[in-house]
Amino acid sequence: MQQIAWPQKKREMFSHHFDSTIWNNFTFRNDDIIIATYAKSGTTWLQQIISQLIFNGQAGLDVSDMSPWLDLRVPPPEVKMPALETQQHRRFIKTHLPVDALVFSPQAKYIYIGRDGRDVLWSLYNHHATANELFYQALNDTPGLVGPRIEKPVESIVQYYHDWLDKDGYPFWAFWENILSWWQIRHLPNVHLLHFEKLKTDMPGEIKKIANFLHIDIHPENWNDILEHCSFDYMKKHSAKSVPLGGAFWEGGSDSFINKGTNGRWKEVLTKQHSEKYEQLALQNLGADCANWLATG
Ligand code: A3P
C-alpha cells in the first residue's frame, strides 16, 4: 500500500505533531510491530502489554524510549531513525496516523486499539489541559509547523467536546477517518483490532489474543508478572517508565497521563442530546457496524 497524500486542508489543520513522510524512509524488519491508535485510546497500555510479552514480564523497562512515536516531529528523524536501527529486541513502534497515511508493510504486524470517542475526548481534554509550557513550546516551535498554534484550552470540557466534533478532531487530528481506515483493513492477516473496553473487562483474554497474533509464547511462570505490570494500579504507580518523556510535558508529571483509566465519565456531564450528537456523527462517518464496535467493543 502506498502513502496517500492528505488533502491540503487537513494538512494545514492537523500537521502540528507529525510528519507522515518519515515512513517513506523507514526500513521494516519482518517482525516489526506497529501500534496504531487515535490518541488517548490506550496506546501506552498497549505498549506496556507488548513490552511485557516481548520481555517476559520484566519490570522497570523504559517503554516509552523503547517504543517511539515514529511520525512525531520531535525528536527529529536524524535522532529517531538511528536509535531504532540499533535496537536488538523486537521493535514496537507507535503511530497515531490513519493507515492510508503510512507505508504499510505486509510483513509487519499492526495492532489497533479503539475507544469510544467520548471517552477519548474526556482523556484528551485532561491531556491537553494539564500540559505545561514545555509541551506547548515543543508543539508550536517545531520546525515545519503549519496551521494554527496549539494553545492551552480555556473553554469548558463540554465546549471542547463540541469543537472537537464540529471540526472533526480539532485542535488535534481528524477522528473518524483514523478509525475507519483501520476498521476497513481489520481482516488482513497482519492486522489485529482490539477495544479499550474489552481490554478493561478481560485483560488476560485480550493479552492472550495479542500474544497469539504476535506468535509470542507466554511462559506460565511469567504470567502473573505480566498481568500485574499491565494493571492500571501498577502503571499509575510506575507511570514515569511508560509515559512519553517520563511525563515532563504535564503539570502533574506522568501521573496526569495515566489518569483515571475508566470509561463513561462523560455520562454524568453530557446531556442526552449532546451525547446523541456524537452517536449520529459516528453512524454517519463510520457506518453501523464500525460505530457499534467503537461504542461497545
Ligand atoms: P484516561 O485519561 O481516561 O484516564 P493513550 O496512552 O492512548 O494516551 O491513552 C491514555 C489513556 O489510557 C488514559 O485514560 C490512561 O489512564 C489509560 N490507561 C493507561 N494505562 C491503563 C491501564 N493499565 N488500565 C486502564 N487504563 C489505562
UniProtKB/TrEMBL annotation:
GO terms for molecular function: sulfotransferase activity. The keyword Transferase applies. The keyword Heme does not apply. SUPFAM superfamilies: P-loop containing nucleoside triphosphate hydrolases (SSF52540). Residues 31-286 form the Sulfotransferase domain. InterPro entries: P-loop_NTPase (IPR027417), Sulfotransferase_dom (IPR000863). Keywords: Transferase. Pfam families: Sulfotransfer_1 (PF00685). Gene3D superfamilies: P-loop containing nucleotide triphosphate hydrolases. Belongs to the sulfotransferase 1 family. This is Sulfotransferase domain-containing protein. The lineage of its organism: Bacteria, Pseudomonadati, Bacteroidota, Chitinophagia, Chitinophagales.
